Amino acid sequence: MGSTSILTMFMFILLGGLACQGRKVPSNLAFVGSNLVVQGSPFLFNGFNAYWMMHVAADPDDRHKVSDVFRQASAAGLTVCRTWAFADGGDAALQISPGTYDERVFQGLDFVISEATKYGIRLILSFVNNFDEFGGKAQYAEWARNAGAQVDGDDDFYTNPLIKDYYKNHIRRVVTRLNSITGVRYRDEPTIMAWELINEPRCQTDLSGATITGWVEEMARFVKSIDNKHLVEIGMEGFYGDTMPQRKQVINPGYQIGTDFISSNLVQEIDFATIHAYPDAWLPGKSEDEQMDFMERWMWSHWEDARNILKKPLVIAEFGKSSKYGLHERDLYMRDVYRDIYRYATSGGTMSGSLVWQVMAEGMDQYYDGYQIVLSQNPSTARIISRQSRAMNGLMSRLFTNYNHRLVMPHHHATIITS
Predict the structure, then answer these.
(1) Mean pLDDT split into 10-residue runs, the chain, 419 residues
(2) The pLDDT of residue 403
(3) I need a surface site. Which of 145, 156, 239, 334 has the fewest CB within 10 A?
C-alpha cells in the first residue's frame, strides 16, 4: 500500500487523536495499545481532567454541560479526558453500598462515554479515590468496619481482604458494564483509553512504598484478568520511595506519602507511568521562580527514569496553577510546562502527553476549585491549549511518517512554543 493511502487510513483510525474543529466525528477509534501505540504508530496527545462528568450527567437536565465541554475541548484539539468512574456512599453515589449501585448515576457515566465517542475524545477512567471526596478509601474502610472486619485505619484499604474484595467487585462491575446508550460493554469500548487504579494513592503507615506496590501488583493483574484490551495505570503523583533514596531525598517536595514511583510502575501489568504536579500547593512558601524550577526538575527526573529504568511511556496526568495567582501568571506557567512536555516528547519517545487540571462548562461555579478553566471564558488560556494540541498532533504525524518509511526520528532541538 502506498504511503498516501496508509496515511489516509491512519488519519481515519485516529480521528480521536486530531483536532476536529468542534464537529462531531464518527466513532472509528482503535484501541490504544501497549507503549501508547495505535495501529503500530505512537499516540501523542494533549488532554484535560474533568472529574465531575458522571456526577453532572446523572441529571439529564445537566448533560448539556458535558456536551459543551467535549465540544469545546475537541475544538481546542484536546483528545484525552480523565474522569471519575466512582462515587462511593453519601449523596449522589454510584456505589450506594458494597455491590449496590444507582442505575441513574451509572447511566450518567454511560452518557459521558457515548458523548466522548461522538467527539473523538478518549477517556481515562479512575476506579476509586485516595481521599474522602466521593467516598474514597475511607468509605471502603467504613463499609468493612460496619461488616465486622478488624480495620485499624483507612490505609487498611491496601491490605484488608474484605476491602480488597469490595474494590475488586467494583472494578468488575464497571469493566463489564453494558452501556445503556451504545450497547457496548465498557471492556469492549475503544473510546476508553485506560483504567486508573486509584486517584493519588497514599499510605502514611508505610512510607517505603512497598505496601502500595504490593496492592498495585494484585489489582493490576486482576484488571487484566477481566479486560486484556485496555491499558492500566496507577494514578500516582510521582513521589519516590525506597527504590531510589537519592531521588526520594532530593526530588520529592519535602515530604513523603508512602509511594514508590519506580517499584510500582515496574509492575508488568502497568502500561504507562503518571505524575501529577502542583508546585503552587506543594511549595506554598516558595517564589514562582522556585516553584517553576521544582516543576522542571520534577518533569525531567521522571522522564529520565521512565525512559531509562521503567522503559514505559510517561503522562503528566494532572498539572495546573491556581487562578488566585492571576490568569496571566497561570497562562505563562502553562506555556512553560507545555514547552517542556513538547521538548521531551521529541527526545526519546517516552513523554506521551499531558492532562491539565481542569476544564469545566459555564454555570458550574459550585465545582470551582481555583484551577478551573472555562474555555469559552478564558480565550488566552484556550489559545495556549490549542497551540499545544497542534504541536503534539504535528509531532505525532511526523513520527507516523517516519514509522511508515522505517526511519528513526533524529534527535534535534525542539521548537519552543511561545505565546
Answers:
(1) 34 36 52 92 96 98 98 98 97 97 98 98 98 98 98 98 98 98 98 98 97 98 98 98 96 96 98 98 94 97 97 98 94 97 90 98 96 97 98 90 51 36
(2) 55
(3) 145
Reading the block at residue 348, the C-alpha cell is 526519546
Residues 6+ apart with CB under 8 A from 284: none
H-helix or E-strand containing 168?
Answer: helix 161-175
CA dist., res. 169 & res. 167, Å (int): 5
What cell was used for 43?
A: 499516540
Pairing label, strands 80-84, 122-126: parallel
Handedness of CA 270, 359, 368, 66 (dihedral sign): negative
Question: What is the C-alpha to C-alpha distance for residues 181 and 177, in angstroms, rounded to an integer?
Answer: 12
Region at 265 (left for phi over 0; alpha for psi -120 to 50; beta for the rest): alpha
Provide the 8-state DSSP code for 307: I
| b/e sequence 268-280, b meaning 16+ C-beta within 10 Å | ebbbbbbbbbbbb
Q: Look at residues 222, 196, 231, 202 and name the one whose alpha carbon lies nearest to residue 83.
A: 196
Which class for 86: exposed (0-12), middle (13-18), buried (19 or more C-beta within 10 A)?
buried
pLDDT for 28: 63
pTM: 0.90
Active site residues: 200, 318
pLDDT of amino acid 13: 34
